[in-house]
Design a protein that fits this description.
- The complex is a heterodimer of chains A (284) and B (450).
- Chain A contains 14 helices and no strands.
- The longest helix of chain A has 34 residues, at 59-92.
- In chain A, helix 2 (49-56) packs across helix 14 (254-282), helix 3 packs parallel to helix 8 (149-174) and helix 5 crosses helix 8.
- The two termini of chain A are 31 Å apart.
- Chain A is mainly alpha-helical and 284 residues long.
- Chain B has 450 residues and is of the alpha/beta class.
- Chain B has 2 domains: 26-144 and 331-366, Periplasmic binding protein-like II (D-Maltodextrin-Binding Protein, domain 2), CATH 3.40.190; 154-328 and 400-449, Periplasmic binding protein-like II (D-Maltodextrin-Binding Protein, domain 2).
- Chain B contains 21 helices and 14 strands.
- Chain B has helices at 2-22, 46-61, 76-88, 104-109, 117-121, 131-135, 160-165, 177-190, 207-219, 238-252, 259-262, 267-275, 291-294, 305-308, 342-352, 355-364, 372-375, 378-381, 387-392, 406-421, 427-442; strands spanning 32-39, 65-72, 96-100, 146-150, 154-159, 195-198, 226-227, 232-235, 281-287, 309-312, 326-328, 331-335, 397-399, 447-449.
- A 5-stranded mixed beta sheet of chain B has the order 2-1-3-12-4. A 4-stranded mixed beta sheet of chain B has the order 6-9-5-10.
- In chain B, helix 2 links the parallel strand 1 (32-39) and strand 2 (65-72).
- The longest helix of chain B is centred in the N-terminal third of the chain and has 21 residues, at 2-22.
- Chain B is globular, with a radius of gyration of 25 Å.
- Classes of the chains: A mainly alpha (284), B alpha/beta (450).
């Protein structure tokens, strides 16, 4: 028993600050607690009513689809693949190029989320940088945030988050034994073959870890979307976190908003479990 | 072992002392604090300066009392959310706060507001408040829970230069929706770069969409949002479809702004700060508080506004009685239900709303006076050239059905307008979507076909 004493404070902290809110969310999602009105301070237990409403809500499937699109597009494909590509290319680039690119990529990551969101808004908005650049090339103005809101937020999130994947992969690539790559090269393997058969299998663990982290981070992205499009137009970029916020705070229906958030917790949990499994399998 | 235990104990003791020092002083100890929560933005500072004055006045009159002003920097929606979050817990609830009239009922339901009936009875000034405005502070039980700061009306604001250039005779006073469309088309033909007649629509402008836009249309058709007699929400009305059709026409013929601009939550800043002063906009529906932005010291000071701008009532659909439509809102001051010093808090409220402070606030924020002595004051009547016009609309004005379902219904209306102006749905489809949404929000048994 005494052996576990040192981890006790950490365990208590985790229970209070992590498990506590999660359990509270499960509980609140089964009540009709509101921001105002008669159920604000005296909520009633409504069982699964909020979830039944959620299933029938036409915005929910849309929102779920947009969340999947956002995570797949900006995290799994965008940040992950681009981060890996940058890390691989930077090893072969000249130090000056590598340092410049690295600084530029990391700069977006260093910005606080709200600042990055405003920067992205300023870039894509009607009078923004993108339209000014295109205008100089003689292209007509386009309302990017209005016509292609999802593409805009996906690109913004790729811009903001790629640095993380890049740093993870740079560290991982340093761990690939040089003898292995050299031996493959001696055997006549080309650059693509070395990447596919040597590098990627060796850093599989890092890939799984990175995928898990960026997926969970991206699932929770709220500020970026809220500042850029506020979920609009016509719910065209309402991912689950935005939907949860709207329901809980704009309409004051905390119970229902929490039900949306709970679905998000479950999705995150499923992804987390899947990646953890992936990680465990490759360790002999 | 013993030594370590004693050290732990002393650490604990020290921590307790520090924690104790952090807790607020005992209210009975002489130093009393009144916390006041209110909204302050870069374009809305009138309330802040009024409360600063009231704080000085109140602290001078009540020795040992500190008024702690807690301005919340947020737009109307976010202010409402932040205030509601603070009110949820007695430990964060302010003693006195700035409260939107349309939230009074649901916040009383939630038990956030203190009943002021007995205290108001002892306040001599209460008799000077306008009876209509007093209604806004009442809850379903008939008790009064909030004291109005001022009210407002909505009207058409138009730029005389733009209309004159299109050959419209001034003063302009449209008699029907058709008049508005005819005028807008003339402006479009004469001045292609100008936005002829804008009306807010979509979810971006939030309550602005419905208060300065859709409701002026809807209530001018003879239809209503809510049936007071049966206490049910109206669905399937022709008026609702007509109103959406009008918006559809405005946006489809490019008489209003581009849909992408309409969905920008900051469009009203362009209306006040850019388009009207630069003669880029013919007319729009806006609140009686419009001059507060343009007058000296306002966020978009524009010395030429008294000459260049005109105001006209919004007409009914085809000119039927009463000939004009307006919507009113307004804000109040309320006392928190959990306040430890209800008497002090109420006294602060009466100081903040005394004749002098009320007058200053009413003029600075271009409100419509709710106190008879303020309304009679020469300074108020000459505050801007439009006071008489917009005050006159009080006779036709309406209030929102402020039940706790209202925010969702309002969002459904905003969604209907957004679907129409973006061309995603026809007015008929959007109206049908709205009917379905209302039934989903309040239940089919709480709707009525009219």
């Amino acid at each position: 028993m005494v052996r576990y004493l040192p981890v006790l404070p950490a365990a208590v902290l985790l229970l209070v600050f992590l498990a506590g809110p999660v359990l509270w969310a499960f509980h609140a999602s089964m009540t009709n607690v509101g921001l105002t009105g008669r159920h604000a301070r005296n909520p009633e237990w409504v069982g699964l009513e909020n979830y039944q409403r959620l299933v029938q809500d036409p915005v929910f499937p849309l929102s779920l689809g947009l969340t999947v699109l956002f995570v797949a597009g900006s995290a799994v494909l965008g940040q992950n693949v681009l981060g890996l590509a940058l890390a691989v290319l930077m090893r072969r680039a000249r130090p000056a190029v590598s340092a410049t690119v690295g600084t530029a990529v990391v700069a977006a990551w260093v910005l606080p989320e709200i600042v990055a969101a405003f920067a992205a808004y300023a870039f894509f908005s009607r009078d923004g940088t993108l339209n000014q650049l295109l205008g100089r090339l003689g292209q007509p103005e386009t309302d990017w945030l209005y016509t292609v809101p999802m593409a805009a937020v996906v690109l913004a999130n790729v811009w903001r988050g790629t640095a993380f994947s890049m740093l993870v992969y740079r560290a991982a690539l340093n761990g690939v034994p040089a003898e292995l790559t050299e031996a493959a090269q001696m055997d006549g393997a080309g650059a693509w073959q070395r990447l596919a058969y040597i590098t990627l299998p060796v850093i599989r663990g890092s890939i799984a870890t990175n995928l898990m982290l960026v997926t969970l981070q991206t699932l929770a992205v709220f500020t970026l979307i809220w500042v850029m499009t506020a979920g609009g137009p016509a719910n065209g970029s309402t991912t689950l976190p935005v939907l949860a916020y709207q329901e809980a705070f704009k309409f004051g229906d905390i119970g229902y908003g929490t039900a949306v958030a709970t679905v998000l917790i479950v999705i995150g949990g499923v992804f987390g479990a899947a990646y953890l499994r992936l990680l465990r399998e490759q360790r002999p | 072992m013993l030594r370590r235990a004693s050290r732990t104990l002393s650490l604990l003791a020290a921590a307790t002392l520090v924690l104790a020092a952090c807790t607020p002083a005992d209210p009975a100890g002489g130093n009393k604090t009144i916390k006041v929560a209110y909204q302050k933005t870069d374009s809305f500072t009138a309330l802040d300066s009024m409360l600063q004055d009231a704080k000085k006045e109140f602290e001078a009159a009540n020795k040992g009392v500190t008024v702690e002003l807690q301005p919340i920097q947020a737009n109307d929606d976010d202010y409402g959310t932040k205030l509601a979050l603070a009110l949820r817990s007695p430990s964060t609830a302010p003693d006195v706060f700035y409260e939107d009239t349309f939230k009074v009922r649901s916040d009383v339901d939630a038990g956030y507001l203190l009943n002021l009936d007995s205290r108001l009875a002892g306040w001599g000034d209460w008799g000077k408040f306008d009876a209509g405005a007093k209604e806004a502070g009442k809850a379903d039980d008939g008790g009064t829970y909030a004291v109005p700061l001022g009210t407002d009306t909505r009207a058409i604001w138009y730029n005389k230069k733009v209309l004159a250039a299109a050959g419209i005779s001034l003063p302009w006073r449209p008699a029907s929706w058709q008049d508005i469309l005819d005028t807008a088309r003339k402006v479009k033909a004469a001045e292609p770069d100008v936005i002829p007649f804008n009306m807010y629509a979509g979810k971006g402008t939030g309550e602005g969409t419905v208060m300065q836009g859709f409701y002026e249309l809807l209530y001018g058709t003879g239809a209503a949002l809510y049936d007071q007699d049966s206490k049910k929400w109206v669905v399937g009305s022709t008026g609702f479809k007509d109103s959406l059709t009008f918006l559809d026409t405005l946006y489809k013929e490019h008489l209003a702004v581009a849909p992408a601009d309409a969905l920008d939550p900051n469009i009203w800043k362009k209306v006040f700060g850019e388009w009207f002063p630069k003669a880029k906009l013919g007319a729009t529906v806006e609140g009686s508080y419009a001059p507060s932005f343009w007058q000296a010291g306002g966020s978009y000071a524009w010395p030429g506004y008294p000459q260049d701008m005109g105001v006209a009532p919004f007409p009914t659909e085809s000119g039927g009685a009463p000939g004009a439509v307006s919507m009113s809102g307004g804000w109040t001051l309320a006392v928190g239900a959990d306040t430890k010093q209800p008497d002090l808090a109420f006294n602060f409220l009466t100081t903040a709303l005394n004749a002098r402070n009320s007058l200053k606030f009413t003029v600075a924020s271009s409100q419509i006076a709710v106190r008879s002595d303020v309304a009679a004051d020469a300074g108020y009547q000459s505050a801007n050239p439009f006071v008489k016009d917009v005050s006159g609309l009080v006779s036709v004005t309406r209030f929102r059905p402020a039940t706790s379902d209202y925010p969702r219904i309002s969002a459904a209306v905003q969604e209907a307008t957004e679907a129409v102006i973006t061309g995603k749905r026809t007015p008929e489809q959007a109206a049908a979507d709205y009917d379905a949404a209302v039934a989903g929000i309040v239940g089919a048994d709480k709707t009525i076909r009219k």
